[in-house]
Amino acid sequence: MLFNYEAIDDTGAKKAGSIDAINVDVAISSLQRRGLVLAGIKSADDQGSLFARNITFLDRISGKDIVILSRQLSTLFEAQVSALRIFRLLGGETENHVLGAKLTTIADDLQSGSSISGALAKHPKVFSEFYVNMVKAGEESGKLNETFSYLADYLDRTYELTSKVRGALIYPAFVVVTFFTVMILMFTMVIPKISGILTDSGAALPVYTTVILGVSNFLVSYGFIILAIFIVAAFFLIRYIRTPAGRLAYDHFKLYIPYVSTLFRKLYLSRFADNMNTMLSSGIPIVRALELTGNIIDNKIYEQILKDAAEAVKGGKTLSESMSNNPHEMPGILVQMTKVGEETGEVGSILKTLAHFYSREVTTAIDSIVSLIEPAMIVLLGGGVAVLLASVLVPIYNIAGAQ
């Protein structure tokens, strides 16, 4: 297999070339024996094939991949395998080729003298700032195996909770899409064919039938215009949400929309408590933990609250005091239990308890919302179809009876 590489020789000059080897590890070893310091190495086959580039693009790194990686790192560090050998081994063995390439690059950085956290920090799309800071704390304390175990447990909980929320919303979304699809097909394909029979009969039509026929004619005549307007509106709405002001408005909406706001609020509180517990248990200072949690909690409202809390803690306030100014986002039970943890010196343990509590609350909220949405959607779908059929069939029966 041919590999293209960039390297620096013993005189400090940059060199680029290609080398033929069985795999990337053999290629790296051969280049290092020549006294070269690698800056990068890639398979020439991957670079030359458009199909291969597309496959690499599609082969994304999921949260589950990082969970499994963290478990493997924890096990290998506990077995006292060297960091360089660990990343070389995992880089060659992982099924995800993109992640394998990242791990091989990290191994190259380690061989060049970089720290593990420093090497991971070069790949922010794979390893978040939270992840890097956790690893840095583990390096400083000499407990990398425990750190990766903490990370694996945390990421596993986060992945499970997020998947549960997404999974719970799939069924209602499917029912809503099905409802609108059936309605559109009925209005644009079925009713227009029957409307000619009804209008040609000359019989008086009920008010609700007239309304349905009017809506059907409107959709047939202007349906594409409405679809175009909807697509343009959706495009600009998505663009607006991606702006700082739009993201803030969207996050505010999620926290105040009826019923669903309870789910989102408990989800963010679960993330807050779990993140803080994980970082404090790893020895990260509370101010830094608040800043990092604000960056990864995925809500601008909570991000600002936690940044303000970090500033308040810097100014001498306790964590519970800094959170008490936002009773809607930070409920009293969270503030009071945090205060108890501060008084007893068990903030991490209290936050762990709160994380489990809010995780269960999220599950309960999901079950409650789904139990309400499912019958409502079924009734709405059945009722809508029934109204359409009645508006068409009743006049037909009346016409048939008159004859």
Question: What key attributes describe this structure?
Answer:
403 residues; mainly alpha; Receptor-associated Protein
Q: Can you describe this structure?
A:
This protein has a 3-stranded antiparallel beta sheet. The protein folds into 3 domains: 2-58, no CATH class; 63-127, no CATH class; 144-403, Type II secretion system (T2SS), domain F (Receptor-associated Protein), CATH 1.20.81. A hairpin with a 5-residue loop joins strand 1 and strand 2. The protein is mainly alpha-helical and 403 residues long. Helix 5 packs antiparallel against helix 6 (97-111). The protein has helices spanning 24-33, 44-48, 50-58, 63-78, 83-93, 97-111, 116-120, 129-141, 144-201, 207-241, 244-256, 260-281, 286-296, 300-314, 319-323, 332-344, 347-402, and strands spanning 2-8, 14-20, 37-43. The protein contains 17 helices and 3 strands.
CATH architecture of the largest domain: Up-down Bundle
Order of helices and strands: EEHEHHHHHHHHHHHHHHHH
Low confidence ranges: 47-58
> What is the domain total for the residues?
3
Write the SSE topology.
Blueprint: E1 2-8, E2 14-20, H1 24-33, E3 37-43, H2 44-48, H3 50-58, H4 63-78, H5 83-93, H6 97-111, H7 116-120, H8 129-141, H9 144-201, H10 207-241, H11 244-256, H12 260-281, H13 286-296, H14 300-314, H15 319-323, H16 332-344, H17 347-402
Antiparallel strand pairs: 1-2, 1-3
Helix pairs in contact: 4-5, 4-9, 5-6, 8-9, 9-10, 9-12, 9-17, 10-17, 11-12, 12-13, 12-17, 13-14, 16-17
